[in-house]
Design goal:
mainly alpha; Farnesyl Diphosphate Synthase; globular; homodimer; two-stranded antiparallel sheet
Amino acid sequence: MTDAVTKPHDRLAAALSDDLARVDATIRARMASEHAPRIPQVTAHLIEAGGKRLRPMLTLAAARLCGYDGDHHVRLAATVEFIHTATLLHDDVVDESDRRRGRPTANLLWDNTSSVLVGDYLFSRSFQLMVETGSLRVLDILAGAAATIAEGEVLQLTAARDLATTEETYLRVARGKTAALFSAATEAGAVVADAPDAVVRALHDYGDALGVAFQIVDDLLDWEGDDIGKDVGDDFREGKMTLPVIRAVAAADAHEREFWARTIGKGRIGDGDLGHARALLDRYGTLASTRRDALDWAARARAALDAVPPDPLRDLLADLADYVVARIR
Amino acid sequence: MTDAVTKPHDRLAAALSDDLARVDATIRARMASEHAPRIPQVTAHLIEAGGKRLRPMLTLAAARLCGYDGDHHVRLAATVEFIHTATLLHDDVVDESDRRRGRPTANLLWDNTSSVLVGDYLFSRSFQLMVETGSLRVLDILAGAAATIAEGEVLQLTAARDLATTEETYLRVARGKTAALFSAATEAGAVVADAPDAVVRALHDYGDALGVAFQIVDDLLDWEGDDIGKDVGDDFREGKMTLPVIRAVAAADAHEREFWARTIGKGRIGDGDLGHARALLDRYGTLASTRRDALDWAARARAALDAVPPDPLRDLLADLADYVVARIR
């Protein structure tokens, strides 16, 4: 089953291809709006934009490896993708982004208004889909995730440019941005399959650790760059307090602290400041220590799966944890 | 029970005062966020801003007149107010408003970002509250209302400045803006009280007709003015296709059509145009015919209550329907 050449993400997609086709059909059917054609225009742009369907696959894999053979996992997987897409739409307004995955964002092609309202529409559609599962336990999990996501976004906003931001706050923001939906995706898949509590817990913990690893890697790549179209230094310019910066600020001498206060704190950034910031991260080894943290979270994700019955899908999820951090090795 | 002097809204508030106090306590408890103090700052501004708690009262009254004596109606009433407040926050971003009810809006005091994210937070909190009722039927009603609201907002956006907008589209927008949440509020109250289907249906229909009447009145007041701080002509300047305009455009000769195409259609508005628009509405009597429609919807709301068992709260709801249109009589 394992294949050193093919990416675990692609192997998961192959193993779940029938389910994924049903998820795509559900997404297309539910994003349609008879009366407001702007809605599918905006969402199709996002949903077709090369998204990897990572979150829906987490739900499908969790349900399948728990032996589920009904239909609700498909609805849940579409729910999770809708919540993710709605969050992206609202994020683009918040970040005033003009690019995502190397393509123009919806708020640049249309306007902020459409991004806000179509995001709301997708939230409401996701809500209808999950109600159709008829599982109050699933609804409770996803409602909790939605609250964590929203709180994390507000927290990120207020933590930006705040040099006093702690690692604890960073972790809370990372859970809101990424891990809360990952863990809800895996946990809901297990719950819909009526898995034993220990397995539900294990799959929740896997999703949580995978999501934290994923977010730490994303923040590292903002300093180190990769090939997905993200510009190095965006977070620095936006004053985001990610782990490498939090640690460099904690270690800073008085002179360095002034630098961080001017750049991250006040957003007054000139030529050479990005390079100097990077040199400070290197001086204190904070990119390296952050990289170790990401690997540690990936290892936790893999370890959580020990409580899950053996299954080829379980092995793929374990490989996925390694793959998420492979970009920074 | 009836009192010609006191407003029905105030009499409802008096009759439901214990329940309303519990709703307020629930709202305060649930809008708190341990980690993101920006959230209660933004929401308190809105929730304390002289809102009349009309929607929560609809839920409380519906549940009580169906004989309910549990706790879930309080959660549902808080849910409905949270959804309403979240919608206001997102509307302020969409409209780029700087005043609501005569006070500065949240997006002026803070920023668009906070309005979007805190709105999302309130949606997620409302979602958690309704899951706590444990009623899938209630969840289905509120999920459907959320989708109608979101779709109506997008529809309003695409219908603005479009002279071809029909009365059917107007009605759909009015349901999205107002009536969908009114009818969900009354219907959910009846459902949580386990009322017979005919009563549930009647209370839904009451809320729907009340909401449509309410929205038509609101749109009329944009032309006629009142004392709630709304500026006459806002909708005209924003190119909103409300009933008086839709009807005047339909009756327009070629010259008048050019006027509407320039002003509503293209937003090119100069001195005297608002007065001229008003004169065109008067020429075709569209304010008067729209006023008749509002009265008709209020009468429908009152009539729907015939299927509801006699109760002092039922009479107050009937009086409320008259009161909603009293501002334009």
